[in-house]
Amino acid sequence: xxxxxxxxxxxxxxxxxxxxxxxxxxxxxxxxxxxxxxxxxxxxxxxxxxxxxxxxxxxxxxxxxxxxxxxxxxxxxxxxxxxxxxxxxxxxxxxxxxxxxxxxxxxxxxxxxxxxxxxxxxxxxxxxxxxxxxxxxxxxxxxxxxxxxxxxxxxxxxxxxxxxxxxxxxxxxxxxxxxxxxxxxxxxxxxxxxxxxxxxxxxxxxxxxxxxxxxxxxxxxxxxxxxxxxxxxxxxxxxxxxxxxxxxxxxxxxxxxxxxxxxxxxxxxxxxxxxxxxxxxxxxxxxxxxxxxxxxxxxxxxxxxxxxxxxxxxxxxxxxxxxxxxxxxxxxxxxxxxxxxxxxxxxxxxxxxxxxxxxxxxxxxxxxxxxxxxxxxxxxxxxxxxxxxxxxxxxxxxxxxxxxxxxxxxxxxxxxxx
Length: 418
Fold this sequence. Notes:
There is one protein chain. The protein has ten helices and 15 strands. By secondary structure, the chain is an alpha+beta fold. It folds into five domains: 1-31, no CATH class; 43-96; 103-182, Beta-Lactamase (2-Layer Sandwich); 184-263, Orthogonal Bundle (Helix Hairpins); 268-418, Heat Shock Protein 90. A six-stranded antiparallel sheet has the order 4-3-8-7-6-5. A five-stranded mixed sheet has the order 10-12-13-15-14. The termini are far apart.
């Protein structure tokens, strides 16, 4: 007899479909809970909001896509402009490089730390091909200060070149650019012109100079004739011999002055300690001043200071000034040598308390062959000015009638390019 199966429907909160422990043949089937009915108006409103949001999103996307396209076009234009500018700057840079390479003058670029960042071939030819990356203070050791404060000499390819240097700021970071110009030929022409001027001045004064040479020469010849007399006593012979030597020394001094004036330039260029020069001239002139009954005062303070030039020429120039002071200072007077250093200029003053000079004489004292003394050559002060100019300096005079004179020699001190 068939067995009837019993089924029971259990609520959804009961156990999932399984056999009842009390009725193993009864299977419980869960029944879903009742879902509340959907409101059609709410569904319609939701769809409306969704449609509006979708429309706004589509519009925003369209606008974004249009903006992207415009930005892409602008970027393409900007890239084209940048590329054009880059090519122009690259071409300009190439032209500048070619120009720097072709320049006969030297160009050295220094960074804020004073290191050589770049240099053109002309500069490397004078200073060395490996100067890039080196401190300028090291590179500058190859430069030797010349007579002027902004001119230097350098040995390159077995010859000496004279360079003028100028400096300009390059950027706010402290960079600098140095411009070097070869003035060797210009300096040679300048010296040649000065030499011709001196020769011209000597030609103009040849007649007066011949008279100055003829007078002591005639006197010397007269004394020589007297020395040939057989009846001349020993005392007279000694007296004539001494006078002859005086005239010959005077002639020698005149000839040396003329040669030094014509030469003009110092024979050498080396550091010359000024204290040593002052010491040399003091030892020479002090006995002469004492013999003339004059006091000598010295107050020159320049320890360790040197000028570049010819020690013998500088000593001779100072001696000329001191001898000039000796000749115009009356017995019992004072000759004073003083000076010192201010900034990059060393100054030596030679002061006397002689009669001074009238303005018309003072304006001509440095002219060649101008003199107020019968035995003078008129070249002493002209030589002083020539030596001062040859060393890159100058000489000036301050004088008041009845109150003496002061001659001041100004010389640039020796220094190293930095």
